[in-house]
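[User] I wish I could look at a protein chain and see how it folds. I have put the entry right below:
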Amino acid sequence: MKAIWNDKVIAESNDIVNIEGNSYFPVESVKKEYFKNSETHTVCHWKGTASYYNIEVDGKANNDAAWYYPEPSKLASGIKGRVAFWKGVQISLP
């Protein structure tokens, strides 16, 4: 699968975990040059506290468009070390 934003592939992997309609990519599959840390954090009642990335491609920013759980709950341990996307990031098959 590929994560695409602003016509660039920002992550690509065959090792995807799907939870609640979101595709979680391994952090190793993310093209780090497009990601900047965000100060945003949210709390999910069963996964834990999420941290976010801003995505920047060709001078355009998509703030908080990727998220991950640095220390997910035991129930969500399968998404540790994984990143998911929203805010217009397209997820497609290769």
About this structure: Strands lie at 2-5, 8-12, 17-19, 22-26, 35-44, 48-57, 60-68, 82-85, 90-92. The domain at 2-92 is CATH 2.170.150.40 (Metal Binding Protein, Guanine Nucleotide Exchange Factor; Chain A). The mean pLDDT is 97.
